[in-house]
Amino acid sequence: MNETILLQPKAVFDCFAEINRVPRPSKHEERMIAFLQDFGKSLGLETRTDEVGNVIICKPATPGCEGRPTVILQSHFDMVCEKNADVEHDFLTDPIQTEIDGEWMRAKGTTLGADDGIGVAMQMALLQATDVEHGPLECLFTRDEETGLTGAMGLQSGFMSGKYLINLDSEDEGQIFVSCAGGARTTAWFDIPTEELPDGFFTFSVKVSGLRGGHSGDDINKFRVNANRLLVRFLTDEMERMDLRLCDIQSGGLHNAIPREGWAVCAVPTGHKEQVRIDLNHFIADLEEEIGKAEPDFKVELESCPAATSCLQPKAAHRMLLSLRAVCNGVYAMSFDMPGLVETSSNLASIRLSEGSVVVTTSQRSSVGSARLDISAAVRAAFTLGGARVETGEGYPGWKMNPDSHLLRVAVESYRRLFGKEPKVLAIHAGLECGLFSEKYPGLDMISVGPTLRGVHSPEERLHIPTVQLVWDHVLDILKNL
Questions:
Q1: What is the pLDDT of residues 91-144, one digit of tens each?
Q2: How many CA atoms lie less than 13 Å away from 414 in the CB half-sphere?
């Protein structure tokens, strides 16, 4: 990343460039763990790694600040790995290629990894710094946040000792988060037998693409259209009109991303070949009216395929698709306590035929524990009625606001003094590791801050460069005044 020399704060962007040379997909973070271990030891700092792979690097207080309380700075070092279909990139081996677009940094056709690599970079820069006033620091780096929060779940009591924790995994500068949603994943397995496709059928694929996608929590209320919903809608409508057979379906991606694209292979009697094309044109026209302003680049395309020899049993496939059409997706309830905050939601994340089963992954979120249980139960009900085996995982807890937070008061006063305006104190409809920390360390005083990111969990992920300096200055001032 040759542009680093132009970016401020230089120390942070230098560290971010180093991080982006290290492959770190969720569940495959071994090289990043070794990188952080070597980094801490190279500075002569106490560096420890727990059984699940979380790394903590401890830095003593600067002279004269030894009596201050210990502050934990925390971020996760794994990243969501999404790329455009036409991009050649292996996340297990290839570095992230970044580029500058005005005031924004993005990657070339892939996720950028600023979620939460930019938080990791800030911690690294702080550990290296010799001109920053602070008390004792513990920089905690957690693994596998994006696909289950397993790093934070496996964190043992006593691994860290600080009184205050600043999470660096938020996505809007000027906002201080003090609460987050809890969540769980619900998976369904539709065991549908296959049968021989009769003679005289025309095989084709239908593909949905060009949608914006995004984070299934933070972006769920931003009119992002779900590719799985569009695909299922077209397939169920065509099944009502003609003898459509489903041969394959591969749609959506990660459980915490609003799906941007997907496809299915289908077959219809040859005599209905042209009718399918006509129906697709009508479908596209309807979508242009419904979602054209929210999703101007959407595409639904039909292409001929080599003749299929088998298909899913029609009645069972139809029943499965009806259940997917009925399942809850999107915003389910808004918060009564905090206007504008999504309280409860669900995301139909992926639909994949694999080894004789159609496996469907969804995620549910809520800032109210009982409401999360209810939405998960509603999702299970729809899948059960469709004939599936269904399981909801244990999930993770939310993080409840601490009304007496000293850290929050210091952070608000600092922001007001530095920038001459009030920060927004908010809750977020996404899972933060703070929820799990609050379970293991009940007395921990926490906030979450971060620079402005857009398009996270998609190849449109981008980082607003000027906000990195603002957050850096804010964090340093908080450390100086705690």
A1: 999 999 999 999 999 999 999 999 999 999 999 999 999 999 999 999 999 999
A2: 23
Determine the Cα angle at 401 with ends 468 and 12, to 5°.
Answer: 15
Does 286 score more than 90 pLDDT?
yes
Instruction: Note whether 397 and 439 are within 8 A (CB).
Output: yes
In 3D, which of 160, 133, 136, 158 has the Cα closest to residue 69? 136
Residue 145 designated active-site: yes
> Can you read off the two tokens belonging to residue 41?
């030891």
In angstroms, rounded to a whole number, what is the distance separating the alpha carbons of residues 149 and 14?
Answer: 27
**Mean pLDDT, residues 161-178:** 96
Note the pLDDT tens digit of each residue in 234-261: 999 999 999 999 999 999 988 888 999 9
1 has pLDDT over 50: no
Nearest to 173 by CA among 469, 434, 455, 408: 469
Torsion, Cα of 283, 286, 287, 290 (10° steps): -160
Contact 366, 375 (CB under 8 A): yes
Pairing of strands 164-167, 445-448: parallel
How far apart, in Å, do the first and last CA atoms of the chain sit? 35
Say what the pTM is.
0.71
Q: What is the CA radius of gyration of the chain?
A: 24
Local confidence band at 156 (pLDDT 50, 70, 90 cut-offs): confident
pLDDT grade, residue 6 (50/70/90)? confident
Nearest to 300 by CA among 224, 204, 230: 230
Name which of 364, 421, 430 is nearest 217 in CA terms. 430
Active-site residue among 78, 82, 171, 261? 78
- Two tokens, residue 356: 């004789």
In the chain, the percentage of residues whose pLDDT exceeds 70 is: 99
Say if residue 2's pLDDT is above 50.
Answer: no
C-alpha distances in Å from residue 121, one per residue of 74, 450, 473: 11, 12, 14
94 is catalytic: no
Confidence of residue 66 (pLDDT cuts 50, 70, 90): very high
The two beta strands, 389-392 and 164-167, are unpaired
Looking at residue 157, the DSSP 8-state letter turns out to be T
Which residue in 29, 82, 116, 145 is the catalytic one?
145
CA 467/CA 283 separation, integer angstroms: 42
Task: With residue 74 as reference, give the H or E element that holds it.
Answer: strand 71-76
3-class SS of residue 193: coil
